[in-house]
Every structure is written in structure tokens, then in C-alpha cells.
Amino acid sequence: MEESGLPRARRGCSHPGMRLSVVSGGFAPVADGVGLVELAESCGLDGVWLAEHVGFRDCVVPAAAGLARTSRVDVGVAGPAPASRHPGLLAMELASLAELGPGRVRAQVGLGGEPLVARLGGSHRDAVRTAREFVTVLRALLAGERVTGTFAGATFDGLRLAHAAPVALDLLAMRPRMLELAAEVADGVSLSAGASAAYLTRVVRSLRTSGGFRVTAMAVGAVAESERAALAAVEPAFRMLPPVLAEGAAGRRELAFVATPDTVADELARYAATGIDELALTLFGDPHHLPGTLRLLATHCP
């Protein structure tokens, strides 16, 4: 791959039905993230997303440990950005993870939260171009191409991975231009938590392509004995959710996964009806109840 041109993206593989995964935000101890991977596999979920935020825990270490301790569940990393990773290094990390878990690794990449990446000297200036180059150069490296040039602010001089491996890449996106870019250059798109059903449905309709493009919806959620208790459990997360995704929502209840044991199936069906390919839940509540909650979710997933 030379600086003069960027190759067009390949598409990944599709999965029937709505996939169900769980998210670790990277704020808890590393051991908790690894344990979540093992728990998700034992409970029958499709995957786990291990996220990172600048200044907190990274996503690669728990992903590697989780892959080494499991054999079936998919393990994804979420949040690597141009400000925090040279794409050459990130490609090496992703290829190494794929060696530990062939066919089980996926990545969600983006620009990162602007206040956090600013601590590393990063910004969202020229966001679309930077995201395009970041995704495309990662794809080239993971495909075993030799890269020379400057992409997403990173310089390459003949870099080629000795052990390249195919890893699907999703773009973290919310606004129209980034959503369009995801459809153009990535294997899928990851939509931020806090999205209404109307927003999800509209995005799915606008981005649906043939060939397995995956739409993943992140969501905060809780399962409790009453809907009021579940809503109270996720309440702290609402102040961090982007209002741009609240399209058509009558209230906060519609922006999260809120259920009792008796309504889990209905809540899963509500998300599935939007047409998304995967629901990725960040669960709040008593951690002692997490195993039972995951088993309940896996049992009722469409």
C-alpha cells in the first residue's frame, strides 16, 4: 500500500439473528474483564467487548487473557484511536490476538472521546479523513500488505506484518458523515449507547448493504425485580450518553435496556425489531447477580 492510494474495504461475514454480547468498559480491574469473557462463554453469549478509555485500563491485555482461557466466545476490543495507537502497532496487536483466537477477534475503532484523547495531544480535526485513513491502513496491514506513507498522522516506511491475520474492523460512529464512512470502508458500525429505537431503525435502513455489514448497538442496561429498580440502576449512565441519539424517545426508559426477569424477552425483541445485528450490553446492578442475568439473556435472545 503506497501513499498515493487507499484500497477499498472488504466485507466480513454475517450471522443469522441478533447477536448478544456484553461489554466491559475498562474502568474495573483487568481481572474483572477477563472473568467477564469466561462468564460470557459459560452462559452462552455470542461475544464480549473489552473497551478502553485514555488514562484507564487498556483493552488488549484482558482480551489476550480472555482468549487464552476460552474456546468459543468472540472477543472484541473497542476504542483504539489514532491518538492512542500507531496503526502499525495496533495491527500487530490485533494479529497477535487473532493468533490466540482464530476467527474470534473483532475491533471497534474510532477517534476516541475528544476530552480524553486531548490528553495525548489528539483532536477531532479533519475527523472523516483521519478515520478513513486509520481504518484503511489497518485493513492493509492485516491483509499482509506493505505500507509506505503517512496515514492518520502516522508514518510508515515499508512496514509489513510478518504474521498478518484477518480481523474485522467496525467504525465507532454517530453522525451522518461517519456513518457513511463506516459503510464505505469498514466491516460494520458500532453505535453508541443511548440510542433510541427510532435512531437505530433509521441507521439500519440507511446502512444496510449486502455482504454482511454488521450494525452493533451498544446499550446500557439492567435487569431487576422491578422496572423502576432497573431504571434506577442505569440512571448514573444517562449523564454520559450523547443526546444526538435520542431521536423520537419519549423518555430515558427508551434509551436503555430496562427489564425484569419476566420482560427480558420483550426487551430483547424491542431491540431486535430495529434490525440491528448485535446488541452489546453494559450491565449495571449487583455484580453477584451477573451470572444469572447473563444466562437469562442468553436463553431469551432472538
From TrEMBL:
Keywords: Oxidoreductase. It comes from the Bacteria. One of its GO terms (molecular function) is oxidoreductase activity, acting on paired donors, with incorporation or reduction of molecular oxygen. Pfam families: Bac_luciferase. Gene3D superfamilies: Luciferase-like domain (3.20.20.30). PANTHER family: 5,10-METHYLENETETRAHYDROMETHANOPTERIN REDUCTASE, PTHR43244. This is LLM class flavin-dependent oxidoreductase. It comes from Amycolatopsis suaedae.
